[in-house]
Amino acid sequence: METEAVAAHEPQESAVATKKVFVKTYGCQMNVYDSQRMSDALAADGYTATESIDEADLVLLNTCHIREKAAEKVYSVLGRLRDMKAVRAREGREMMVGVTGCVAQAEGSEILRRSSAVDLVVGPQTYHRLPEVVRKARAGERIVETEYAIEDKFEHLPQPKRADVARRGVTAFLTVQEGCDKFCTFCVVPYTRGSEVSRPVAQIVTEAEKLAGAGVREVTLLGQNVNAWHGEGPDGTEWGLGRLLFRLAEIPGIARLRYTTSHPRDMDDELIAAHRDLEILMPYLHLPVQSGSDRILKAMNRQHQAAEYLKLLERIRSIRPDIAISGDFIVGFPGESDADFDDTMRLVEEVRYASAYSFKYSPRPGTPGAEMDGHVPEDVKDERLQRLQALLTRQQNEFAASLVGKSFQTLIEKRGRQDDQLVGRSPWLQPVIVDESAGGIGDIVNVRITRLGTNSLYGEAA
Ligand code: 5AD
Ligand code: SF4
After folding, report:
1. Residue 302 CA: which ligand 2 atom is closest?
2. Which family does it belong to (predicted)?
3. How many CA atoms lie less than 13 Å away from 393 in the CB half-sphere?
4. Could you tell me if 237 and 353 lie in one domain?
5. Whose CA is nearest to atom 15 of ligand 1?
6. What ligand 1 atom has the least distance to the C-alpha of 364?
7. Are residues 421 and 386 in the same domain?
8. Cβ(361) – ligand 1 distance below 6 Å
9. Is the CB of 176 under 6 A from ligand 1?
């Protein structure tokens, strides 16, 4: 799932902290997680995280390459950092700048060429080397560390996958799978993140137990193609994500499980059964479809038709009627006609999404889509995106409104902006604002919704 997230991270253990790192995160939850991982790795070298760029000795931009604008945004931020760096230099204070994430992977040394502000470039496959790269950069070297070049994109990647987790209080992400072998024709992920790799069951279970022991109540399993996860179970049989969820549900202390992001092709029977049988698997499914037109789905290499997607949702809803469906959409893929776009609108009408992300197609160099005929003019893309987003926003509001007057379990996550408020999370991922008397952080309380906020729900202990 692609959300614009900005995260600054808390330090872990405090080594003798002399230096400060500011990490700005763009893009998906995988990046939010990676940013935490980078902060943790640098903590051993005496870096503590800061939320203020002004006091940072090291600025890391953890970038996203999924759409063109994201990369351009990075270059414009780098322009501002170059000016900041010049001011700092006059003051005799050091500020190093690093670019990490998928733009780093895809652009490599081009970033050093285009921006004189940049001291280091590190791709997602090489974060374990970040502290060493930072040390070298401090010694004056300008470094690109991306392990494999974008030109080698079809090579299989033997990647050491690391057993890390990213925590934010009572909720945590746990990466179980990275990379993607689906090769949707619009997408750079198979090139920037490499082939699908699943983490072994035992590692995942151990991490989840550790998290539970540390007070985490909700674990979100993370992967670019999370439901393609598979591994050998302790019984010697092949497990899929459904079986893994059943196993994680046995861990005492874990009260909620989620997973993201899924591909329709990989929703197998056991995963669907998990939604029926596991009360603690939250009734929320992010299942991108991208388009409602079979012609476009084929050109996108999505490997399924619109009717199959609808049927799948029907099955899931029949066994878990309260499930909220979320999706991703692309408008203006090459060759998309008015009729194709109408198919998308019809599909959305039929599904009724609780939330969704929609984007204009953005040609990514090196992907098959970029080479296709029939690129759609920008103004047509704009118009389609507007219509689609209006419909999706209406559905999202309708879903939120349907919860007013209802009561449900809410996980209290943190203090609110106002002193006497707490912020919790509904089973469907909406923030729920309650009075502090409702419970403590980490409690799961029954809340009745009294009114709607802009992007949240207001409720009271029921
Ligand atoms: N152009 C527009 N949107 C894209 N996405 C991925 N690649 C592109 C692209 N080239 C969107 C898809 C995907 C989400 C993470 O980003 O909808 O599901
Ligand atoms: Fe990209 Fe498709 Fe893989 Fe998702 S499934 S990461 S859209 S190639």
Report:
1. 2
2. Belongs to the methylthiotransferase family. MiaB subfamily.
3. 8
4. yes
5. 2
6. 10
7. no
8. yes
9. no
Per the structure, how many domains does the chain have?
Answer: 3
Whether 10 shows a pLDDT value over 80: the answer reads no
How does residue 9 score in pLDDT terms, banded at 50, 70 and 90?
very low
378 and 261 part of one domain? yes
Same domain, 390 and 441: no
Domain identity same for 360 and 434: no
Q: Give whole-number Cα distances, 304 to 18, 291, 311, 312, in Å.
A: 54, 11, 11, 11
Structural domain contains residue 261: yes
Q: How far apart are CA 23 and CA 42, in angstroms?
A: 11
Distance 152 CA to ligand 2 centre (A): 19
pLDDT of amino acid 14: 41
User: Is residue 162's pLDDT more than 80?
Assistant: no
User: What pLDDT, in 10s, does the model give residues 345-393?
Assistant: 999 999 999 999 999 999 988 999 999 999 999 999 999 999 999 999 9
Which atom of ligand 1 lies nearest, measured to the CA of 358? 17
Give CA–CA dist 143/417, Å, rounded. 41
Q: Are residues 326 and 261 in the same domain?
A: yes
| Section 429-450 average pLDDT | 96
**Among 95, 117, 148, where does a domain finish?**
148
CATH at 431: 2.40.50.140
3-class state of residue 448 by DSSP: strand
Inter-residue contact 58 to 22 (CB < 8 Å): yes
**Domain extent for 455:** 407-461
Distance (Å, whole) CA 447 – CA 454: 18
Mean pLDDT of the chain, nearest integer = 89
- Angle value at C-alpha 365, between 361 and 370, nearest 5 degrees: 50
Query: Is the link from the previous residue into 410 a cis peptide, with omega within 30 of 0?
Result: no
Helix (H, G, I), strand (E, B) or coil at 44: coil
Q: Which of 401, 425, 448 is the last residue of a domain?
A: 401
pTM of the model: 0.81
CATH number of the domain at 217, please: 3.80.30.20
